[in-house]
Amino acid sequence: MNQPTQAAIAILYRDNKFLMQLRDNIPTIRFPGYWALFGGHIEPGETPEIAVQREILEEIGYKLPSTFSFFGCYPDENVVRHVFSATLDIEFNQLVLNEGWDMAILAPSDICKGSYYSHNAKEERLLAPVHQLILKNFMDNNSQKLITNN
Protein backbone atom coordinates (compact mmCIF):
# COMPACT_ATOMS: atom_id res chain seq x y z
CA MET A 1 0.00 0.00 0.00
CA ASN A 2 1.27 3.48 -0.88
CA GLN A 3 2.18 5.87 1.88
CA PRO A 4 0.25 9.16 1.80
CA THR A 5 2.07 12.24 0.53
CA GLN A 6 3.22 14.66 3.23
CA ALA A 7 2.34 18.31 2.57
CA ALA A 8 2.79 21.58 4.46
CA ILE A 9 0.27 24.37 3.84
CA ALA A 10 -0.31 27.81 5.31
CA ILE A 11 -3.35 29.77 6.38
CA LEU A 12 -2.24 33.34 5.67
CA TYR A 13 -4.59 36.00 6.99
CA ARG A 14 -4.88 39.77 7.21
CA ASP A 15 -7.81 41.90 8.44
CA ASN A 16 -9.98 38.80 8.94
CA LYS A 17 -9.48 37.71 5.30
CA PHE A 18 -7.55 34.78 3.90
CA LEU A 19 -5.06 34.45 1.07
CA MET A 20 -5.84 31.67 -1.37
CA GLN A 21 -4.36 30.34 -4.59
CA LEU A 22 -6.37 29.26 -7.60
CA ARG A 23 -4.54 26.09 -8.55
CA ASP A 24 -3.49 25.55 -12.14
CA ASN A 25 -6.13 23.77 -14.20
CA ILE A 26 -3.89 20.74 -14.88
CA PRO A 27 -5.74 17.40 -14.59
CA THR A 28 -2.73 15.57 -13.08
CA ILE A 29 -2.48 17.76 -9.95
CA ARG A 30 -4.62 17.54 -6.83
CA PHE A 31 -7.64 19.91 -6.97
CA PRO A 32 -6.99 21.36 -10.45
CA GLY A 33 -8.70 24.72 -10.94
CA TYR A 34 -9.83 24.94 -7.31
CA TRP A 35 -9.08 27.65 -4.75
CA ALA A 36 -6.71 26.25 -2.10
CA LEU A 37 -4.21 27.30 0.53
CA PHE A 38 -0.61 27.89 -0.48
CA GLY A 39 1.95 25.18 0.28
CA GLY A 40 3.15 21.89 -1.10
CA HIS A 41 5.07 18.66 -0.72
CA ILE A 42 7.50 18.11 2.10
CA GLU A 43 10.85 17.15 0.56
CA PRO A 44 12.92 14.25 1.98
CA GLY A 45 14.79 15.41 5.07
CA GLU A 46 12.58 18.49 5.57
CA THR A 47 10.44 19.13 8.61
CA PRO A 48 6.91 20.43 7.97
CA GLU A 49 8.01 23.81 9.44
CA ILE A 50 10.90 24.13 6.97
CA ALA A 51 8.75 22.93 4.07
CA VAL A 52 5.97 25.48 4.64
CA GLN A 53 8.50 28.32 4.80
CA ARG A 54 10.17 27.14 1.56
CA GLU A 55 6.88 26.62 -0.28
CA ILE A 56 5.44 30.04 0.64
CA LEU A 57 8.67 31.76 -0.38
CA GLU A 58 8.72 29.87 -3.72
CA GLU A 59 5.04 30.35 -4.51
CA ILE A 60 4.47 34.02 -3.56
CA GLY A 61 7.84 35.43 -2.48
CA TYR A 62 6.69 35.83 1.13
CA LYS A 63 8.93 35.09 4.11
CA LEU A 64 6.73 33.80 6.92
CA PRO A 65 6.95 35.81 10.15
CA SER A 66 8.81 34.10 12.99
CA THR A 67 5.49 33.91 14.85
CA PHE A 68 3.89 31.40 12.45
CA SER A 69 2.34 28.51 14.31
CA PHE A 70 1.14 24.95 13.84
CA PHE A 71 -2.64 24.77 13.47
CA GLY A 72 -3.32 21.08 12.94
CA CYS A 73 -2.89 17.95 10.90
CA TYR A 74 -5.46 16.83 8.32
CA PRO A 75 -4.77 13.30 7.09
CA ASP A 76 -6.72 11.40 4.45
CA GLU A 77 -5.91 8.32 2.37
CA ASN A 78 -3.75 10.32 -0.09
CA VAL A 79 -2.25 13.27 1.79
CA VAL A 80 -1.25 14.23 5.31
CA ARG A 81 -1.63 18.01 5.45
CA HIS A 82 0.44 19.77 8.11
CA VAL A 83 -1.32 23.13 8.48
CA PHE A 84 0.32 26.30 9.79
CA SER A 85 -1.06 29.80 10.25
CA ALA A 86 0.54 33.22 10.03
CA THR A 87 -0.41 36.82 9.57
CA LEU A 88 0.23 38.35 6.18
CA ASP A 89 2.42 41.30 7.14
CA ILE A 90 2.71 42.87 3.69
CA GLU A 91 0.18 44.30 1.25
CA PHE A 92 -1.45 41.95 -1.24
CA ASN A 93 0.08 43.84 -4.18
CA GLN A 94 3.58 43.12 -2.82
CA LEU A 95 3.09 39.38 -3.33
CA VAL A 96 4.27 37.76 -6.55
CA LEU A 97 2.33 34.73 -7.81
CA ASN A 98 5.01 32.29 -9.00
CA GLU A 99 2.81 29.19 -8.97
CA GLY A 100 -0.88 28.82 -9.71
CA TRP A 101 -3.52 30.41 -11.94
CA ASP A 102 -4.61 33.27 -9.64
CA MET A 103 -4.56 34.43 -6.02
CA ALA A 104 -6.99 36.46 -3.96
CA ILE A 105 -7.89 37.55 -0.45
CA LEU A 106 -11.18 35.89 0.52
CA ALA A 107 -13.59 37.06 3.19
CA PRO A 108 -15.15 34.56 5.62
CA SER A 109 -18.42 34.83 3.63
CA ASP A 110 -16.60 33.65 0.47
CA ILE A 111 -15.14 30.70 2.35
CA CYS A 112 -18.54 29.72 3.73
CA LYS A 113 -20.08 30.08 0.25
CA GLY A 114 -17.43 27.71 -1.13
CA SER A 115 -16.59 29.58 -4.33
CA TYR A 116 -14.96 32.80 -5.48
CA TYR A 117 -14.67 34.69 -8.77
CA SER A 118 -11.25 34.57 -10.42
CA HIS A 119 -10.31 37.46 -12.69
CA ASN A 120 -7.71 35.27 -14.42
CA ALA A 121 -10.13 32.37 -15.00
CA LYS A 122 -12.97 34.84 -15.71
CA GLU A 123 -15.42 32.69 -13.76
CA GLU A 124 -16.49 31.58 -10.30
CA ARG A 125 -14.32 28.66 -9.10
CA LEU A 126 -14.90 26.25 -6.20
CA LEU A 127 -12.82 26.01 -3.05
CA ALA A 128 -11.12 22.65 -2.55
CA PRO A 129 -13.37 20.95 0.03
CA VAL A 130 -10.61 20.03 2.49
CA HIS A 131 -9.13 23.55 2.32
CA GLN A 132 -12.59 25.05 2.93
CA LEU A 133 -12.97 22.75 5.97
CA ILE A 134 -9.54 23.77 7.31
CA LEU A 135 -10.43 27.47 7.00
CA LYS A 136 -13.84 27.00 8.63
CA ASN A 137 -12.15 25.19 11.53
CA PHE A 138 -9.57 27.97 11.80
CA MET A 139 -12.25 30.68 11.81
CA ASP A 140 -14.24 28.79 14.47
CA ASN A 141 -11.15 28.29 16.66
CA ASN A 142 -9.89 31.87 16.27
CA SER A 143 -13.05 33.94 16.10
CA GLN A 144 -11.98 36.25 18.92
CA LYS A 145 -8.44 36.73 17.63
CA LEU A 146 -9.58 37.54 14.08
CA ILE A 147 -11.94 40.35 15.01
CA THR A 148 -10.44 43.63 13.83
CA ASN A 149 -11.09 47.24 14.70
CA ASN A 150 -12.68 48.30 11.42
How would you describe what is shown here?
The protein is of the alpha+beta class. The protein has one domain (5-146): Nucleoside Triphosphate Pyrophosphohydrolase (Alpha-Beta Complex). The protein contains 4 helices and 9 strands. It has helices spanning 48-60, 108-113, 129-141, 143-146; strands at residues 5-14, 17-22, 35-36, 38-41, 69-75, 79-87, 102-106, 115-118, 123-126. The strands form 2 sheets. Strands 1, 2, 3, 4, 5, 6 and 7 form a 7-stranded mixed sheet that branches. It has a two-stranded antiparallel sheet with strand order 8-9. The radius of gyration is 15 Å and the shape is globular. It starts with a strand and ends with a helix. The mean pLDDT is 93.
The domain tally reads: 1
On the 0 to 100 scale, the average pLDDT is 93
Kindly estimate the percentage of residues that lie in beta strands according to DSSP: 25-35%
CATH class: Alpha Beta
The helical percent reads 10-25%
Radius of gyration: 15 Å
How far apart are the termini?
Answer: 51 Å
Extended strand count: 9
Shape descriptor? globular
Please work out how many helical segments DSSP would assign. Answer: 4
Q: Please state the second-level CATH architecture.
A: Alpha-Beta Complex
Examine the coordinates and then state which fold CATH places here, giving the name of the CATH topology.
Nucleoside Triphosphate Pyrophosphohydrolase
Within CATH, the superfamily carries the name: Nucleoside Triphosphate Pyrophosphohydrolase
